[in-house]
Amino acid sequence: MADIKLTINGKACTAPAGSTILEAADLNNIHIPRLCYLKGIHKYGACRICVVEQVSPPARNLQAACVVEARDGMVIETNTARVREARKAMYELLLSNHDKKCLTCSRNQDCEFQALGRELGVEDSPYEGEREILPLDVSESITRDPNKCILCRRCVSVCRNIQTTSVLTAENRGFHTVISPGFNLPIGSSSCTFCGQCVVVCPVGALRETSHKERVLKALGDPGKYVVVQPAPAVRVGIGECFGLPAGSCETGRLAAALRRMGFDAVFDTNWSADLTILEEGTEFLQRFKDVLSGGKAVLPMMTSCSPGWIQFIEHNFPDQLEHLSTCKSPHEMFGAVIKSYYAKKIGKKPEDMYVVSIMPCTAKKTECARPELSNDGVPNVDAVLTTRELGDMIKSMGIDFMDLPEEQFDSPLGLSTGAADIFGVTGGVMEAALRTVYEIVTGRELPFPNLHVSPIVGLEQIREATIKLENVKPEWKAAEGFEVRIAVTSGYEGARKLMKQIRAGESPYHFIEVMGCPGGCITGGGQPRPRGDIRVTRQKRLEAIYAEDERKPIRKSHENPALLEFYKEWGEPGCHLSHEYLHTHYVKRGRYNELTDENFTIKD
Ligand code: SF4
Ligand code: SF4
Ligand code: SF4
Ligand code: FES
């Protein structure tokens, strides 16, 4: 489509036809204040902070720049006295209904509403409306504070349009409007998957992760506890942003150093257990594949199980299809199980004296660590989960100068990992890591892709697929000769829903599927630093940083991790009795599915 020409603040501007006034202004470096608008995610016109004067063709009312389309020949003024007064009045109205406890708010100094007040020059709060104080809604993962909600509806958009979960909605009307799960249910009793995508986009402190900072500090101060920490792959490409570094910074060395300064007894790495996951999950896939080749009834496609948001999603929405899930616990839960059994024995400690803290890019992992299935002998595998954001806060509050830290290594032996583990942090990474191992087991050769990257599944398109032909296989795999293994990868629930509907209809062409709950995978998980600007740009930069970290590693295939090979010498082999006791799990049918109507009823069992 052709460009249009318009004049904003006397400046001749061009923009693609179909742009809004705000988009046209952004493209021409003219800043219009905004609050509810979020590029690529939410365009709703809720707050009217972005109002401008439309001089030509003349419009009597001020226009909301984020929703009104820019037209050829338009003349716009963004900074008249009328506009400034209107914005201020709008802000003051929002403020009158807001719980202004900034000093103790999780978003203090990182709050879009606070920053906007300063930008608009608001120095007082002239209206003090009658405010109804509403209770906090605290779930294992997410805390909702309706008193801080400014009704921007970004969370509603992300939950409905991007994640297709439609948990959050506007309840009641007028002054009594509250954004909450339907029927004002507590979020923990709804069909929320705890992906935290709503938390990432909330501009204020109305949605946040439920904090585990206090429980971690308590454990660190308890001389009776041996406290082990493990950060997930995606944390190393997120933590730098908490300290002002640009998106795409990879801070593995300083991350290890910071965790050591915080006082953890052992600083290991979830990446070690990402490699472990590949051996367990790869073995499980090969067992199912072999069974199908010999006419057995093993269930394919097998689907990955690393993402607890995805697990909640399938349990709620496709409870009749759980047998497609791999039985592998997620990597950090496997890690916790190994720490409290194998490693505890090695250092002469009881499982109950070990305390495992996971640093995760994820809010769903907080709920996951409370699942009763993820414990052994009554001891939870993981005791606390801190998001990347919480870790950033804790490093600051402990007075550690992150940027001044030297680059250090993780501790041995459970800190050593391969490049295959790094790419767990990005959509497509678990599948690629699994294929690097599985293909080699079956054929005795490396994957036939340049630089080991399965290029058709690298990227951010919603569903990516590839076919891998098995040729010249090892003698023990001769039944697989010539077989074309079809794989698919998706992230976010919209793609997952499409793939699951295919499976339910018996029309899935795939044998192995990777699903991550958050769009892009863990790099833009619900616990990562909130992107500054367009989330899609941040996602791409973090993706590139993850692949670069993989390529820097001297060993890039999980089955070549020497620390893992040592571990299996004592543990047994992948899929052995001990593995099934400690590293595998089962799932819970949460929703109710009616086959006659193809409808889901997300009622908790
Ligand atoms: S949400 Fe923002 S403005 Fe509101 S109390 Fe928290 S920091 Fe202050
Ligand atoms: S956590 Fe995810 S599923 Fe739950 S309300 Fe937020 S966006 Fe929706
Ligand atoms: S909870 Fe946050 S994102 Fe949702 S409407 Fe309220 S302020 Fe906006
Ligand atoms: S930013 Fe345009 S109406 Fe909120």
Outline the structure in words.
The protein is an alpha/beta fold and 605 residues long. Among the domains are: 91 residues, Ubiquitin-like (UB roll) (Roll), CATH 3.10.20; 104 residues, Alpha-Beta Plaits. The strands form seven sheets. The protein has a five-stranded mixed beta sheet, sandwiched between helices. It has a four-stranded parallel beta sheet with strand order 12-11-14-17, with helices on both faces. The chain starts with a strand and ends with a strand. The model has no long low-confidence stretch (mean pLDDT 96).
Shape category: globular
Strand order of the largest sheet: 2-1-5-3-4
Level-2 CATH architecture of the domain at 98-124 and 133-209 = 2-Layer Sandwich
Could you tell me the strand content as a percent range? Answer: 5-15%
**Helix fraction bin:** 25-40%
Number of helices: 18
Distance between the termini: 52 Å
Question: According to CATH, what is the topology of the domain at 98-124 and 133-209?
Answer: Alpha-Beta Plaits
Bound chemical compounds: iron/sulfur cluster, FE2/S2 (inorganic) cluster
- The level 1 CATH classification of the domain at 98-124 and 133-209 is Alpha Beta
Largest sheet: 5 strands, mixed
* Structural Rg: 25 Å
Query: Unreliable stretches, pLDDT < 50, 5 or more residues?
Result: none
Structural class, by secondary structure, is alpha/beta
Number of strands: 22
Mean pLDDT: 96
